[in-house]
Design goal:
This protein is an alpha+beta fold and 233 residues long. The chain has helices at residues 10-13, 39-42, 87-91, 133-161, 189-193, 197-205, 209-218, 221-231; strands at 6-7, 17-18, 31-33, 48-52, 59-64, 75-76, 79-80, 94-98, 106-110, 117-118, 123-124, 126-127, 130-131, 165-174, 177-187. The two termini are 26 Å apart.
Length: 233
């Protein structure tokens, strides 16, 4: 997402307001991160898969919004076409500022140059030198999303250690054109079904069965994306 983020300060940003997003900041993003906590809702509309960071070897769950780079089938004429908007999209133009030298502490930041930032229209961030209820709600949502993201990274690491994440090429038919989508990971159903009763119960106790089966069922949404792409041609 474009635009440099800076620390949100009342003395510097006291007159800023936020207007509804036109989603231009993700109009060309075909995948966006989602947390495991979002999968139950996001999986009803988008294929949910996993990608691996080659630098850190960490896994991340993502929602597929398009079938090729630069394509977001959920944004049209500045409006979101689906019912569920992923948290990372809703957070914009606010975000978190992290200091690697200060653990367990985050600050709220803003992308000052974003279209959603205004001095005349929208919801005020500050009034009478204090944070507005609107900003307070946005801050709480950001921090909750951050905590869920951190938990997701740990859980995906656990699933990988169990050998449940495998590399997978997804093939989709778009108007007779066979298209392969590489670089993705999915839950290995065979290994999932081969778990011992104790291991399976452990997944249940951790609350992971819902996200796992939500992910597996969501793979059928690939065909929905192909249909939406064809309708747009």
């Amino acid at each position: 997402m474009q635009n440099q983020i800076t620390l949100l300060e009342q003395t510097k940003h006291g007159d800023l307001k936020l207007i509804p997003s036109d989603y231009s900041h993700v109009a060309e993003q075909h995948i966006v991160p989602v947390t495991l906590h979002e999968i139950s809702r996001a999986a009803t509309e988008y294929p949910i898969v996993f990608v691996k960071n080659s630098d850190t070897n960490e896994f991340q769950s993502v929602a597929m919004l398009g079938l090729k780079p630069g394509q977001n089938l959920s944004v049209k004429d500045g409006k979101w076409q689906g019912l569920y908007v992923p948290a990372v999209v809703r957070d914009y133009p606010l975000g978190l500022v992290l200091n690697p030298d200060v653990k367990d502490k985050v600050w709220i930041g803003i992308r000052e140059q974003a279209k959603e930032v205004s001095k005349t229209d929208g919801q005020a961030l500050f009034e009478d030198g204090k944070e507005t209820p609107f900003l307070d709600a946005r801050k709480k949502a950001l921090i909750s999303h951050y905590e869920q993201d951190q938990a997701t990274r740990g859980i995906l690491g656990f699933l990988n250690e169990k050998g449940l994440l495998i590399s997978q090429t997804l093939t989709v038919d778009v108007a007779g054109e066979k298209r392969n989508i590489n670089g993705l990971y999915v839950i290995d159903e065979q290994k999932l079904n081969a778990l011992t009763d104790e291991e399976f119960l452990d997944l249940k106790k951790r609350g992971l069965l819902g996200p796992i089966y939500g992910h597996l069922g969501s793979l059928n949404q690939i065909n929905r994306l192909a249909r939406v792409e064809m309708q747009g041609k």
